[in-house]
Amino acid sequence: MQSNTICALAWHNINTTPQGQCKLCCNISDNIVIRDQNNTPLVWNKQPVEEIWNSSYMQNVRSRMLNGQPVDDCKICYDIESAGNPSPRTHANRDYKIDSTTQLGITTTVLPDSFDLRLSTTCNLKCVGCWSGSSSKIAEERIDAVKNAELPQWLLDAWRNEIDTEIVNTNYIVDNQSKENFKKLAPTLKRLYITGGEPTMDTNIYQYLDMLLDAGNYSCHISFTTNCTVWNYKLLHRLAQFDNTEVQISIDGLNEVDEYIRYPTKWHTKTHNFTQYLKHNVAKTLKVYTVVNALNYDRIEPLIQWLIYLAEDYIKNIIWYPIILDYPQYLSVDVIPIELRQDAMKKLRTALRPIPRGTLCNFHDGVDYMKAAVLKNPTNTEQQSRLIDWLLVNDKLRNLDHTVVWPDLIDQLQNVTRQ
Predict the structure, then answer these.
(1) For the chain, how many structural domains are there in total?
(2) Both 246 and 183 in a single domain?
(3) Best label site of 38, 187, 344, 352, fewest CB within 10 Å?
């Protein structure tokens, strides 16, 4: 067994898209799904879980891993590891204690004990790094923009292709086959991760939690990601019945930074709901994820300082970790001149260095990873003009003014382009 290609998730985890298609894990792109021998996608509300779990795709993935061969779909983890950082693959192997003595096969009669459930595309926000296949609000905006707005040709083509893709909100999780599949997993499920869309808005979440409770599985680790703009008492009451719960909150900056990136977030509402999570003990673990991109790479330090203050004030552990945006490319940090990124990471390191490990806010590992990832690639000058195009379009569509938050950004990009 070659530990540099093996991933425990191939023997433990299954992931659904908001349209019901299935993937090996959430780190794989939404268009890379589990297929049968005829290359037909297998769908959670159409096929039995056993058929999906031991499909030709899954057998091929396991075979390659067992033979020490890389799996193309797992490239994101290999890239993270090549930069010297732990990846979701290495974390999974650690958690499942996968080593050279572990006996694994190409097929397995043991059903997955980890399940990533994408409920739907129902969402109330239009986050800049998201797309129509994950947010109903973005889908509405881009369908209208393609029909009625003046768009640069490249953006018109990209959005037209996006909305022409099958991104319909199928509501697949209410179908009988979906429920039957989950009932088979429920008694032995160790981990359930729920997202959307925005899961706090989706009433279908309750029946899945109830199936776990009906199976007597109170120990399953339940986690969900939320944009923290909705406070759902009914959901929290359900979560309180489980022994191990985790809430993952998306925050991309303070005040107007988050309001622009996660439009139309209202910061006062978000901070109120966030403090509610701190006050209540429903979430045994509280994590904050920041999608690091060209707009906020240099605004991270105030966010972390704010989290440190709240953790100490409420005596609550908070874990902060970055997600490095790679698509759309025009919003990637690589678009920012490398000298500006280097300066920002130096300032971040200097500001946070005096804060020791062991504080209630655990951010050090995340900062270490972020610094390496932000500085990994040279300046992507090809995408700079597209970022400028997109900023002007985004401001017009949403009646915003990016210069209030980033007054010098376009000048910085244009100066590099002229050089």
Answers:
(1) 2
(2) yes
(3) 38
